[in-house]
Amino acid sequence: MSQVLSRVHSERAVDLELxxxxxxxxxxxxxxxxxxxxxxxxxxxxxxxxxxxxxxxYKSSRVWLKKLPTEGPRVIQGPGENAGVVDIGDGQxxxxxxxxxxxxxxxxxxxxxxxxxxxxxxxxxxxGARPIANMNALRFGDPNHPKTKHLVSGVVAxxxxxxxxxxxxxxxxxxxxxxxxxxxxxxxxxxxxxxxTDRIFYSAAAGLGNPVVYVGSKTGRDGIRGAVMASAEFxxxxxxxxxxxxxxxxxxxxxxxxxxxxxMATDAIVSIQDMGAAGLTSSSxxxxxxxxxxxxxxxxxxxxxxxxxxxxxxxxxxxxxxMLIILKPGREQLAEAIFHKWELDFAVIGKLTDTGRLVxxxxxxxxxDLPVRPxxxxxxxxxxxxERTPAPxxxxxxxDLPSPALDVLKTMIGTADLASKRWIWExxxxxxxxxxxxxxxxSDAAVVRVDQTTSKALAxxxxxxxxxxxADPVQGxxxxxxxxxxxxSAVGALPLAITDNMxxxxxxxxxxxxxxxxxxxxxxxxxxxLDFPVVSGNVSLYNETDxxxxxxxxxxxxxxxxxxxHRAVGLALRDGLTLLLVxxxxxxxxxxxxYLREIHGKEAxxxxxxxxxxxxxxxxxxxxxxxxxxxxxxxxxxxxxxxVAVAEMxxxxxxxxxxxxxxxxxxxxxxxxxxxxxxxxxxxxxxxSAEQAKIPVxxxxxxxxxxxxxxxxxIEVAALKQANEAWLPALMAGEI
Amino acid sequence: xxxxxxxxxxxxxxxDAVRALTLVxxxxxxxxxxxxxxxxxxxxxxxxGGFSHGDYLRCGAMAAHSPVMREVRAAxxxxxxxxxxxxxxQILVEAHLLPGALLRNAALKFSCKRVTLRVETSNSPxxxxxxxxxxxxxxxxxxxxxxxxxxxxxxxxxxxxxxxFRYTYEHxxxxxxxxxxxxxxxxxxxMMPHPEDAVEELTGGxxxxxxxxxxVEAVAQ
Lengths: 736, 221
Description:
The complex is a heterodimer.
Chain A: H1 2-7, H2 16-21, H3 26-36, H4 42-51, H5 54-57, H6 62-65, E1 75-77, E2 84-87, E3 92-100, H7 102-107, H8 109-125, E4 130-140, H9 148-166, E5 170-177, E6 186-196, E7 211-216, H10 226-229, H11 250-264, E8 269-274, H12 279-291, E9 294-298, H13 311-316, E10 322-327, H14 332-341, E11 345-353, E12 357-362, E13 365-371, H15 372-377, H16 405-412, H17 422-425, E14 436-438, E15 446-449, E16 457-463, H18 466-471, H19 473-490, E17 494-503, H20 510-529, E18 534-540, E19 544-545, E20 548-549, E21 553-562, E22 578-582, H21 594-600, H22 612-627, E23 631-636, H23 642-653, E24 657-659, H24 665-669, E25 676-680, H25 683-692, E26 697-703, E27 707-710, E28 713-716, H26 717-732
Parallel strand pairs in A: 4-5, 9-12, 17-18, 24-27
Antiparallel strand pairs in A: 1-2, 2-3, 3-6, 4-6, 7-10, 7-11, 8-10, 9-11, 12-13, 14-15, 15-16, 16-21, 17-21, 19-20, 22-25, 22-26, 23-25, 24-26, 27-28
Chain B: E1 3-7, H1 14-25, E2 30-33, E3 44-47, H2 67-77, E4 82-85, H3 87-94, E5 101-103, E6 111-119, E7 135-142, E8 146-148, H4 151-159, E9 163-167, E10 178-182, E11 188-191, H5 209-220
Parallel strand pairs in B: 1-2, 1-3, 3-4, 4-11
Antiparallel strand pairs in B: 5-8, 6-7, 6-9, 9-10, 10-11
């Protein structure tokens, strides 16, 4: 023992105090000592603290995530790899994942958001997929909070700056505002890629003696301990954490994509993993652990941007645009030539061993010698105490319309969550690659053709309604999954699978853990009933500032398949369609609606319940009708309710509608679930099919002209559009 | 017709250009890496959109000094048609194959949308299948497409009928709403919007297709 002690070099002695500065608890410190069997070195402490951070170890969430269904007949790879993989036929697979970059984006919005996009892109092309679309789900604080504008403009510029440069279209997403995010914004980025099913790359190391290769950018001192930072609450001094935020270079990422895909077309790669959170630490440990092997690295060979970096810094740097690759023996020259052509660094930094240990050397000194398996398997796993969210009280009044319905409509579509996000999406290149069939604002889900040789396409959506989740996490979890499924069905796509991005507050508080548990329960039910498994995901906890948590936000990224993109249906009305309301009519549910919040100033009551069986029937019916070519416009009834949904269809084209609906708040603005509006030239056939399938259908009007009419009242669609589009530019110009 | 698409590190609409050319000509274009010191024999050279070398300096400034650009210039001087789209237009301007400059958009933001353009002339191998004065809709996506030229240059471009396209409304601050210009011999076209992303009904319409059909027809003669 003493021999080992003297061998491993440490720049300073590691004690409990230093461990606590690294966010390890006393228990975790003792567990580390047991595993190491001697005093750990500083580098080793850094490795433990990163691997056991909430961000890398999922220590609070793992026991709950297991409850989500992750399998299905098309699922090739579920959670546990860099991204999920689902079969889409013809030897092709869709590879996708969503990931948060919340903490860094609050501290430094441009770089935080940009590197969020870069990280999720790498997770997808690491698997051998060419990225074909990006999405993002953003949540900001109160529009009038002094920081909000700065954060919106920085995050949007960062997402655009990165995504536009790498040439992957950003085709949609969602943006919401709520005071609950004043101290912790959410930036969830999703990438969708396409791979050949026989050319998918995994991260498990294999082959004794095989070279371990580092490619991409050089390592610098940026983002050191970023994973640890992202695993803690904020207090007033969060700006002081700016040095923990990474700096992105989309140009290098673009080169890295091309170089990796070029290398992947050869037979040189055994396995590959991007260096994301916790950089070289997590990539080396995870690759070795999955392969049941050891790894020896000479950190002096790691390409470095700065002089004098210590092993601790090299292992914990989160410099961007880097990958770790295990090559087949003898393929080093081939690989090096490709990376040099793309003007990227390439270095053999070590080899695989059969010791099961991670051994790190630099300048002939030993800095770490750790058993790999316990570092991963014995990572702490907490069954944190949790309490069920109390059931919300029913609404205390009827909350009737305070003014004519069309006036209420015009007000509502100019409020933060319903206002057009054109100001945002026009800063994203949604058209590069030339495969975008429906981009932002055109349909319930974006539709992107798989490649130019086919008319097969993917439908993509991101969804979550945090105002429902906070009132009733189980219903909110169900609804988030159901809405994603509904949005895919509404364009005519077959929903395949989801990725989830679980954004919550401090899990050490039973109330927060109860929100997490409730959302998982609801999501799991919905995934099961809708045959919509989870194939990848990410958990972001500690989204709290000074004890104030965010709204529970389980953001869902859903992907669906369209055999023929020509059949996809958008939401734009055209003249001469009959409008049908499809699905259970509901009760005119007003609890937790945008109507209640924006018109009556109340966030109260239970959220609308989700009947998953009815959801499934209605969605399967709608998809069938679209695929049969009977539907010319389609939109789900979401936030804002029925009248808002019709208005959105009208604003998308400028064509109006004459509606036959009672002027009643619940009917017009209730957010009952599982409903669609279909515009059809053949209402009799659709109605007959609906009756056969026992799906409720109601004719609600006709599309025509340029006016939205409700009974004898009417409003120009152009006036609605003006109200809808004015809000965000005015906010950003400082006019609100 | 055989086309060649030059690929710079950071090009990102090279695939879009290759796709459009393949669709229209029935033949995949050559792709030429920026390091090349010779060009394959080609009837058309395309400089595609993207962010060459990251465009951290002035857009196109570094790419304009790539080895391949010497060959592009020589080819242009021989009368080989050259099309520069978006970043390609910026590179042509930086390489002085077209006059003027491209500044940041007046709104200081990247802007992606389908824009309507007025075709100002059909007198070019790239434009013969359009009618002067007609309007077309094609995608546009750039942060630095604000065309600038001093008044005497603008006058010269107009007098010589070298304005190829104008936006039909104020789009990015470009002087006189200029979206694309021609060289003196009318065989070099630089434009900010993306005709290569408007060649199929399913994905953005077909208003850009005639530009490629025009050049095929011109080359065939």
